[in-house]
Design a protein that fits this description.
GO terms for molecular function: DNA binding; endonuclease activity. The chain is of the alpha+beta class. The protein has three helices and three strands.
């Protein structure tokens, strides 16, 4: 894919592509998971289980070193 073609991809599609990459990394590491990212998913993009421990992932394909506190608060809200 050329740089020009990458620029034409919508932000929503870029997010979906990133979720698929993360799911592949996990499944390649023998971690059972599935993409759940749908409207109304409350921020949960991937659900999975490893050695009996359930986990959820909210994917953020950002190019930043720091995560804003509001994002952490949002994730904490999903957990409660």
């Amino acid at each position: 894919m050329t740089k020009f073609q990458q620029e034409e991809i919508s932000p929503v599609q870029k997010g979906k592509n990133f979720e698929m990459k993360i799911e592949k990394l996990l499944t390649d590491a023998n971690i059972k998971c599935e993409i759940t990212g749908e409207p109304g998913d409350k921020g949960i993009d991937i659900k999975g289980m490893k050695k009996g421990v359930k986990f959820i992932i909210e994917c953020k394909n950002w190019r930043t070193k720091n995560i804003n506190r509001s994002i952490i608060n949002q994730i904490e809200g999903v957990l409660s």
